[in-house]
C-alpha cells in the first residue's frame, strides 16, 4: 500500500500558488503550509474534505471504510443539489467493529461491501474512502479496490485521505488527486466540440449553478464537467476533452486545474459567479479562452450581447432594493472565494463592508479584497466569538452574513443574520442569484422582529404611577411587584 505522505507533500508544493512561487528553493520544498495537527484540524478533517469534494458526483456509490460514526457524522452535511441521479444520497459504510479490527477482517469486509453494492445498485463506479481507523490498522484499500475492479468489472476508486493526515482543505486537494489518478481521462467521448468547458470547484449549493448554466447554453457553450456540482461519473471521466476551464474555488482544487492544464492543455482562470460584474467578467473570460483554443470569434459578440441584456434586467430588478440598502453596513464572516466575490457584489448596490474574514482565503483572494476595499483594515484572519458579539452589539454592522455556526452570535446581539455558506436555502449565483441575495438581505434587515426584540422589556420600564411600599410587612418584594403591575396596560407606563 502506498503511503499518502508523498502525495501530501506534492499537494503542498503547488506551483500555481503565488505565495509558493515567491519562495526560495529550500522553502518551496516545505510546501505552501504545514498540515494541521490531528485533532486541531479546524473546520473538519481530511476525510471530511475529500467527501465534500466527491460526494456531489451523484451516480457514484460512496463507500466509507470505517466504523459507523465516520459516515454518520459527515453524510449529507452540505446543500449540494442533483438534477437526476440520487445514489449519492444513500449512505454506504463497512461498519467496522472492534472484533473486525482485532481479527483483521477489514479488507475482507470491504470487498464484500463492494460486491453487495455492485449487485444491488450497479453503479458506474464505487469510491472507497480510507479513514483514521482503517489507515492506522493498515488496511490496503488500493489493493482491495484493484482486485474488486478486476472481479466485478466496474471502476472502484480508492480515496486515500484519512482524517488524521490533516485539515479539510488538504482533503479537498487529495480528492482532486484521486480524480486525476483514477477517473479523469479514462473515457474518451465521441462528441467533443470546440465549445466544451469544465467548471471546477463549483458545488451547486442550493442548485445555484442551475442559474448560470442557462446562460452558457444560450451562448452554445457546453459544460463537459462541473466538478463536483451535479456531476456524473462519465462526465468527470471525460473532462480531459474540454477546451477551457473556470476555477471557482481555488482553495479547494487549484491542483486539479493546474495539472489538467499540464496534461491536457486545458487553460483555466479563476472567477466568480457572485455579483453582476463578476458574472459578466466570467462569461467574457470563458469566451476568450475558447477563442484562444480555436472557437469561432463570433462567440465574443454573442457574449457581449447576452451580458448587456442580462445586466439591464438585473439592474432594473435591483433598483427598488438599492434605495433601501444604500449605506447599510455588512459584516462577512466567511472565507475562500466568497471573501472577495460577495464583497464586490454587495458594494455594487451601495452597501458598506465593515469587515470580511479571510481565514480560508488564498493569497490571491486577499489581494483581490485589498483592490476592492482599497484598505486591508477591514480584513481579519479570525475573530473570536466575543469580538464578533461586541462588534454587533455596539451596532458597528447592520447585518452579518456567515455560516450557521455563528448565527447565534448575531441573534444574541439582536442583529439581522443571513446564511451565506453551504447550508443556505437560496441560490445566489449569476444575475438572478444576485437579485435573490439582495432580496434576502432586504428581508432580513427590514424584518419587524428586530424592532420588537430591541425594545426594553416591560419590567425594565419606569412606571408612571407612584411606587408604594408593600401593604404588609410579610409581603415580599416579588409579590408586591406582581400586584403593582397586575391589570396595567402599555398606557400606564412612562418612557423606557
UniProtKB/TrEMBL annotation:
Pathway linked to the protein: Cofactor biosynthesis; Fe-Mo cofactor biosynthesis
GO molecular function, one term: nitrogenase activity
Family from the record: Belongs to the NifD/NifK/NifE/NifN family.
Keywords: Nitrogen fixation
Domain of life: Bacteria
Entry's transmembrane regions: none
Role summary: This protein may play a role in the biosynthesis of the prosthetic group of nitrogenase (FeMo cofactor).
InterPro entries named among the record's database cross-references: Nase/OxRdtase_comp1 (IPR000510), Nase_comp1_CS (IPR000318), NifE (IPR005973), NifE-like (IPR049939)
Compositional bias ranges of the Basic and acidic residues kind: 16-32
Species of the source: Mesorhizobium temperatum
Biological processes per GO annotation: protein-containing complex assembly
Residues of the Nitrogenase/oxidoreductase component domain: 45-443
Pfam families for this protein: Oxidored_nitro
Record's keyword annotation contains Lyase: no
Region entry Disordered, spans: 1-32
UniProt name for this protein: Nitrogenase iron-molybdenum cofactor biosynthesis protein NifE
Amino acid at each position: 500500500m502506498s503511503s499518502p505522505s508523498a502525495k501530501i507533500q506534492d499537494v503542498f508544493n503547488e506551483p500555481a500558488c503565488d505565495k509558493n512561487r515567491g519562495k526560495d528553493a529550500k522553502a518551496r520544498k516545505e510546501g505552501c503550509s504545514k498540515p494541521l495537527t490531528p485533532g486541531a484540524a479546524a473546520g473538519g478533517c481530511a476525510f471530511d474534505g475529500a467527501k465534500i469534494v466527491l460526494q456531489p458526483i451523484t451516480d457514484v456509490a460512496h463507500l466509507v471504510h470505517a466504523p459507523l460514526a465516520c459516515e454518520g457524522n459527515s453524510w449529507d452535511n452540505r446543500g449540494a443539489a442533483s438534477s437526476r441521479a440520487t445514489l449519492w444520497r444513500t449512505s454506504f459504510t463497512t461498519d467496522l467493529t472492534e472484533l473486525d479490527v482485532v481479527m483483521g477482517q477489514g479488507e475482507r469486509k470491504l470487498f464484500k461491501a463492494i460486491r453487495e453494492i455492485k449487485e444491488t445498485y450497479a453503479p458506474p463506479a464505487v469510491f472507497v474512502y480510507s479513514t483514521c481507523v482503517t489507515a492506522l490498522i493498515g488496511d490496503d484499500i488500493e489493493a482491495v479496490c484493484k482486485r474488486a475492479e478486476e472481479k466485478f468489472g466496474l471502476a472502484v476508486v480508492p480515496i486515500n485521505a484519512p482524517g488524521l493526515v490533516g485539515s479539510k482543505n488538504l482533503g479537498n486537494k487529495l480528492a482532486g488527486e484521486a480524480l486525476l489518478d483514477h477517473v479523469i481521462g479514462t473515457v474518451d467521448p465521441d462528441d467533443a466540440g470546440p465549445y466544451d468547458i469544465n467548471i471546477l470547484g463549483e458545488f451547486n449549493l442550493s442548485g445555484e449553478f442551475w442559474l448560470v448554466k442557462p446562460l452558457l447554453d444560450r451562448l452554445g457553450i457546453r459544460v463537459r464537467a462541473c466538478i463536483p456540482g451535479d456531476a456524473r461519473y462519465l462526465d468527470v471521466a471525460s473532462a480531459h476533452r474540454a477546451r477551457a476551464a473556470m476555477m471557482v474555488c481555488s482553495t479547494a482544487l487549484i491542483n486539479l486545474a493546474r495539472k489538467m492544464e499540464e496534461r491536457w492543455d486545458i487553460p483555466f482562470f479563476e472567477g466568480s459567479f457572485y455579483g453582476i460584474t463578476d458574472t459578466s467578467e466570467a462569461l467574457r473570460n470563458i469566451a476568450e479562452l475558447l477563442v484562444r483554443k480555436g472557437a469561432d470569434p463570433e462567440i465574443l459578440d454573442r457574449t457581449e450581447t447576452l451580458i448587456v441584456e442580462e445586466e439591464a434586467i438585473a439592474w432594473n430588478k435591483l433598483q427598488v432594493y438599492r434605495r433601501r440598502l444604500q449605506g447599510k453596513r455588512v459584516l462577512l464572516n466567511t472565507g475562500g472565494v466568497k471573501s472577495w466575490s460577495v464583497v464586490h457584489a454587495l458594494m455594487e448596490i451601495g452597501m458598506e463592508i465593515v469587515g470580511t474574514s479571510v481565514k480560508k482565503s488564498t493569497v490571491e483572494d486577499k489581494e483581490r479584497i485589498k483592490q476592492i476595499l482599497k484598505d486591508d483594515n477591514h480584513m481579519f484572519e479570525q475573530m473570536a466569538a466575543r469580538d464578533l458579539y461586541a462588534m454587533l452589539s455596539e451596532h458597528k454592522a447592520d447585518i452579518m452574513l456567515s455560516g450557521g455556526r455563528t448565527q447565534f452570535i448575531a441573534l444574541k446581539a439582536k442583529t439581522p443574520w443571513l446564511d451565506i455558506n453551504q447550508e443556505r436555502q437560496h441560490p445566489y449565483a449569476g444575475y438572478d442569484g444576485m437579485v435573490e441575495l439582495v432580496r434576502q438581505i432586504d428581508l432580513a434587515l427590514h424584518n419587524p422582529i428586530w424592532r420588537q426584540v430591541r425594545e426594553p422589556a416591560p419590567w425594565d420600564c419606569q412606571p408612571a404611577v407612584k411606587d408604594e411600599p408593600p401593604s404588609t410587612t410579610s409581603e415580599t418584594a416579588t409579590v408586591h411587584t406582581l400586584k403593582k403591575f397586575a391589570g396595567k396596560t402599555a398606557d400606564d407606563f412612562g418612557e423606557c
